[in-house]
Amino acid sequence: MDNFKEKLAEHHMYRLITEELEKQPFNREMCTRFPPEPNGYLHIGSAYAIHMNDLIARSFDGTFHLRFDDTNPLKEDLEYVNAIIEDIKWLGYDPGEHIYYGSDYAEQIYNAALSLIKKGKAYVCDLTSDELTDYRGTLMEPGRNSPYRNRSIEENVELFSQMKNGDVPAGSKVLRAKIDMASPNMNMRDPVLYRIIFAEHYRTKHEWCIYPMYDFAHPIQDAIEGITYSLCSIEFKDHRPLYDWVLNELGTAQPPRQREFGRLSLTGVVTSKRFLRQLVEGGYVDGWDDPRLPTIRGLRRRGYTPESIRRFIEEIGSIRSQSTVDISLLDHVIRQDLKEKATSVMAVMRPLKVILTNYPEDKVEQLPIENNSENETLGTREVPFTRTLYIEREDFMEEPSKGFHRLTPGGEVRLKGAYFIRCEDVVKDPESGEIIELHCTYDPLTKSGTGFTGRKVKGTIHWVSAEHNMKVDVNLYDKLLLDEELPKDSEDWISKMNPDSLVQVKNVLMEALVEHVDPEHKFQFLRHGYFCMDSRDYAARDRMVFNRIVPLKDSWKKSNGNEGK
């Protein structure tokens, strides 16, 4: 994050705020906020918004608030509150003591609405939701005044009190701002400020039955907390005049300023909360923490680190408008983050048995193998080497194609950290003709680390001992969607889903050294990519499951067993 701070001079939001602060509009310190609605889980786009608010606060030696926009009891839940707090802290943007709830300001927001009514700037309207839409007009046609717009202040105060006391049915009345039904900005055409909702709130229970709309609550909450800059994504730009109108009509001194930044999207990834909910509730994915989702929970379960996500956001830099970033950048960043951290291990996805006919039957040799070729400080480990081994089935070709430099009949390769071996015989199933094992010989003079300088081989392949290994299951991931176009409705997901977005490989053979690994521990499976142990229900499983975070440098299909073919 410090590297990104050095680039602040190039950051449009930083430059904008710096210029504005030169006029000294505030007599208080910088304060920003991230205001999620607790009706779902954070995703990569949320992380960008969090980063933007935290960055600006730190850059001007200010504070960063987390404030829950919990003004709709029909959708919100304490589960989401706890998850959001945990995710933000995991990402490294800890708000500390500055965690707030919009519902705690309910009385102040109600009194603000009452003051607008008494100024003649708000009125109770009895139009139905369909009528409200009709009266609002279109982008080409002005709206029409509600027949209830000219109610007296006294009548509006009484009716609003009835709404608050639960004396009128839900949907029968709303409180609206009195602005301008002919405004070219649809948000200024007498927007709804309050509506009636009879439902239990997760914090205030049944204390309230009227709830403010976000556009009304948002500026008031900012003013209460002393926010200086309300940094929002670009879709709220047209809402800014209403934000300013509310604060102006309430006579707010040194009001907060709303400023907008671009919205982040990724190729092949769903970041819309509405569409994410459809995927989860429709059973198309394995919950909010499905590793194919861009939720913070999904990215964490897949194996992404908080450092890699922050670095990814820093690499994107300043976004002014809607921007779609190629997900390959996120893949690149996690590779860079893990290449000197992850322990390299040998894992065989599609095993082919190899018998070294000239190796002693009962001998077990412990061979030292480096834990990370990029980082010597991670040291070495000892790997048991035996007469019977397993290699990748793709590492042998009976009739090699051009450029294939692995094991062939009569050919030699080096086993990683071990010896040269030569294939002497190919054993096939008499009925199917499938290759079931290879008989090879090893050259004891070619042991790795002995300074052997004799003949050369072009290929090195990985292996595991047949007697000293463990079986695990592996999840291989590709992009979730076949194209960038989202479905028009929730029933059209099947046609958009990539059928190969998850490929499960059973009975993968690994070095036994990972038997006691902790969840979320990261490994590099040689030639297959970076993996981490799946944290979901790991204690109840009969074997470990590893999620592939990202392939090495090749495409998903190439590293999924087609290389060299």
TrEMBL record:
Its EC number is 6.1.1.18. Signal peptide: none annotated. Transmembrane segments: none annotated. This is Glutamine--tRNA ligase. Keywords: Aminoacyl-tRNA synthetase, ATP-binding, Cytoplasm, Ligase, Nucleotide-binding, Protein biosynthesis. Pfam families: tRNA-synt_1c, tRNA-synt_1c_C, tRNA-synt_1c_C2. InterPro entries: Gln-tRNA-synth (IPR004514), Gln/Glu-tRNA_Ligase (IPR050132), Glu/Gln-tRNA-synth (IPR000924), Glu/Gln-tRNA-synth_Ib_cat-dom (IPR020058), Glu/Gln-tRNA-synth_Ib_codon-bd (IPR020059), Rbsml_bL25/Gln-tRNA_synth_N (IPR020056), Ribosomal_bL25/Gln-tRNA_synth (IPR011035), Rossmann-like_a/b/a_fold (IPR014729). Residues 345-443 form the Glutamyl/glutaminyl-tRNA synthetase class Ib anti-codon binding domain. One of its GO terms (molecular function) is ligase activity. PANTHER family: GLUTAMATE--TRNA LIGASE, GLUTAMINE-TRNA LIGASE. The keyword ATP-binding applies. The keyword rRNA-binding does not apply. Residues 31-339 form the Glutamyl/glutaminyl-tRNA synthetase class Ib catalytic domain. Residues 460-534 form the tRNA synthetases class I (E and Q) anti-codon binding domain. Belongs to the class-I aminoacyl-tRNA synthetase family. It comes from Paenibacillus glycanilyticus.
